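Researcher: I'd like a structural prediction for the single chain below. Treat it as a standalone chain; there are no partners to consider.
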Amino acid sequence: MIPGFAHRRRFKDLSEQEVLALAISSEEDDARIYRSYAELLREDFPASAAVFDGMAVEEDGHRHLLIELHRDRFGEVIPFIRREHVSGFYARRPVWLVENLGLDRIRDEAAQMERDAERFYLAAAARTSDAPTRKLLGDLAAAEASHTEKANELAEEHVTGSQKSDEESAAHRQFVLTWVQPGLAGLMDGSVSTLAPIFAVAFATQDTWTTFLVGLAASVGAGISMGFTEAASDDGQISGRGSPYKRGFASGIMTTIGGLGHALPYLITDFWTATTIALIVVFVELWAIAWIQNRYMDTPFAKAIFQVVLGGALVFAAGALIGSG
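Model: Treating it as a single chain, here is the predicted structure.
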């Protein structure tokens, strides 16, 4: 059992004072999270940062109302109780877990926060028979439900059409620099550079198991090499290409996948069947690379096809000739 989990309280066992205390601490946490999001976005997405600043102010207002209600009903001393003290209560993702996933992911996380808070206030309102408390909790549930509208109002106030376009363009550019570009480089390296050794061994030995082992070793080795090379090449601070760990992961994984694509068919024992399937896989890989180049890198499709297919054909021919010799 995870330490501390056995000591959690069940929501239904909380007193009305504890429910109010939980609501107060939850509003405080949510305001802090919104402000953290705002700071994360302020440099690259100042307009969206202003939206989250406004949402934090809303949460502060809710907290003040709850504190006043607690003071009127139970006095000045608020029990110390937080989300993690209540069994089955909704949790918030740590900011560090969300911050690297982009603007859209942060907005989605905020929307989920509002839905969680609405459900909590509805459940809390159902637990109390005190009319003022029930009214306030019901009002807060309605406020959380309308936060999406509030976010839209704040967005209209702070995010103009040109700013929204600029932010979306910046977010797309960041996605391409951090994930697509390293991943594409890895896929190209894994798909093309492993063609020669795999097909050289295939035609030299016509042993499918040996060919598979060579392909597996080449793919995994290339993936590790590309991953470390990408991660070590640029910390992203000046270039703005994003986290080196994310880029290294994207590059390494895609390199390995690119090589394994035409190595795995050699698990088939019949040589010519395995080779035919491997060639089909190579064809699909090269077309996929050309499509990604056209979709995300704005490379004309004809030019992408010419570069990738010609390069792949030359490498394959080299491997086949060397293996046949």
